[in-house]
Amino acid sequence: MKYMDHPNKKYHVLARGVVISSDYILVAHCIGMDNTFLPGGHVEFNEGLKDTLSREIGEELGLSCEVSGYLGTVEAEFEDVDTYHQEINHVFTVKIPDINHKRNPSSKEGHLEFYWIHIKDMEKHNLQPHPVRILIMNYLENKVQGSHFLSTFDDGSGV
């Protein structure tokens, strides 16, 4: 079924975080699904991307973090049983104090679990949307980040 024929359509704007420890990356997994994704979530109205990511990590993991470099944007689409989804993922590097790949952090949300995967195993763990794998590898191999990220949320000037 083509997206235009779907009775339900949803559009998502998301902030996602790349948390790295040694050669491992932290991923989220929705229990019962066959894929993983980066921690983070939906941007709320009147909220900047960095604030969204910080809030989401607080809600999901109960941890504070520092959202730093902007890696880029990944646009994706997917279908579930009766809905076509289109999403924009803004991906940042994130530092979380006192967290490392030797211990999986506990989830504060019952439908999610978090665990570390080796960088080379992103495909094996079906990290989605799949173009985030390219962003991550470009960053790790070449320290390539997005060219610019500017926001009125950062300077307090509002709209």
Automatic annotation (TrEMBL):
It holds the Pfam family NUDIX. Its cofactor is Mg(2+). InterPro entries: NUDIX_hydrolase_CS (IPR020084), NUDIX_hydrolase_dom (IPR000086). The keyword Hydrolase applies. It comes from the Bacteria. Residues 10-140 form the Nudix hydrolase domain. Keywords: Hydrolase. This is NUDIX domain-containing protein.
